[in-house]
Amino acid sequence: MSCRNRPLPIRQAVALGVVHGPAELLPISSTGHVALIPWLLGWQYAELDGELRKSFEVALHAGAAAALLVVLRHEVADAAHGLDARRVQLVVLSFAPAALAGYALERPVERHLGTPGTIAFGLLAGGVAMALADLSPQRRGHLQADARDALWLGLAQACALVPGVSRGGATLAAARLRRFTRADANRLSRHAALPVITGAAALKGVRLYRRGLDPGLRAAFAAGAGAAFVSTLASARLARLLERGSALAPYAIYRAALALAVYSRFTPATRARRFPRARP
Question: What is the pTM of this model?
Answer without folding.
Answer: 0.85
